[in-house]
Amino acid sequence: MKNSFKICGFIFSIILSFNGCLKDFSISEVNSEVNNSEKIIAYLEAQGDFINTIQIPAVDSALDVNDNLYSYEILDIRSSDKFVAGHIKTAKNVTPANLFATVKSISSGKIIIIVSQTGQAASYFTSLLRFAGFNKVYALKYGMVSWNPDFRLSWVDGTNGPGFTNRVYERPSPSPLPAVTFDNSVVTIKEKINSRIKSLIASSFGDPAPNSLPASTDLLELSYIYNNTDSTYANTFIVCFGLDGLYFLGPNGQLDNPGHPPQAVFYRQSNGYVSDLRSTTYLQTIPSSKDIVVYSKYGHSSAFVVAYLRLLGYNAKSLLFGANWRENLPQYGMQDYPYVTGN
Known about the structure:
Elements: H1 2-17, H2 36-46, E1 59-60, H3 62-67, E2 72-76, H4 80-85, E3 92-93, H5 99-105, E4 111-115, H6 120-131, E5 137-140, H7 189-202, E6 216-217, H8 219-224, E7 226-227, E8 232-233, E9 236-242, E10 265-268, E11 291-295, H9 300-311, E12 316-319
Parallel strand pairs: 1-5, 2-3, 2-4, 4-5, 6-12, 9-10, 9-11, 11-12
Antiparallel strand pairs: 7-8
Helix pairs in contact: 1-2, 6-7, 6-9
């Protein structure tokens, strides 16, 4: 308990130093020393606590982009071969490794749109850029899949997985935050966080499929570690992140309906009043000792959350295509806009 008050006082003092304030501030009661993850949380919460606002997922639709094409700076982060095969007319092909520097160099007042194949990688990188203070950055919702039917096969609908249930799984007891090491060559907390963000941006996400070093996974990969005997996943904690209704399909008693994977725990996305990922609520009930898989309705919100968790030091991955065992790609968001080929 003594250490909990120490953590609370430390984070509160940082927040005050940034001219911010949290109502009813109190970190979860865990036994841990103040570490770099807590410094990151304190800084980001003082800067507006983006991940716990209704701004996520920060996405713009294909309709919005097409109607205001020259008001946007469009950065397409797909591989060069996918870009050459077809892209939005004014888009520039940028590798994720160069994304931070490119966004920083844009001095115009334009809104920046990050484009990936399905919008999920774009959401991940957009989240990291938002944490770095680039507040005019958005992801293209559903990516190129939403732009033209020629890209639609990249989206996976209706994938089945093992053991889906409607059983309620409670949050674990609070645990210490992950250990994070900062680059010693930088001084301020903002510089340290940005250095870590740059490293994460330079790493891979995987869109539309996981790859060798992903920040994403899929139901097929989860099925490999699923234990049919006790309905668990090896050393993996599954987070269902969304608004009320995503966790269940039908009444709670209908355990055979595919509401969520076994052992998945519900964490509420911000509805303007309640958010479960604040330091004052349930963030530290996500165990730092396990691999974390986060899923949302379509994979956008989960990508934003995974960026946050990885920044804090969690080994977190976003479940590609979200709850696609029950939420197929909505056709109302799909367009048939022209695209160009070549460089």
